[in-house]
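Sharing in case it's useful to others searching the archive later.

Someone asked me privately for the predicted structure of Heme biosynthesis protein HemY, so I'm posting the question and my answer publicly. Question first, with the sequence:
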Amino acid sequence: MITATDAAIKSLSMHFKDKDIQPIRVHLADGGCSGPRLSLAIDELRDGDKSVEQGDFTFLIQSELAEVVGAITIDMSEYGFTLASEREVPGAGGGCGCSSCGTGTCGGH
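And my answer, the predicted structure tokens:
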């Protein structure tokens, strides 16, 4: 369901080095003109969550979201954590068709 690569686990271990390890939630975040995207946040277990243990870490996801997106892989890139899902995130990839989206230089976007 949720798998973190060795690189992601290493980065999380460094983040929590001098802190208590807390559960990490996979959730939908606003993706701007590209629509929603999967993201990570520190959170606590809630009713209706699925949880996955990997090493010292607990990953949480709302059951309904898990059913929609399928298996999730958490990895690292030079820009930070990346999340890939087995199935497309609902509403993702819309885009405004503007190469400078979010800069205020294309049709008021």
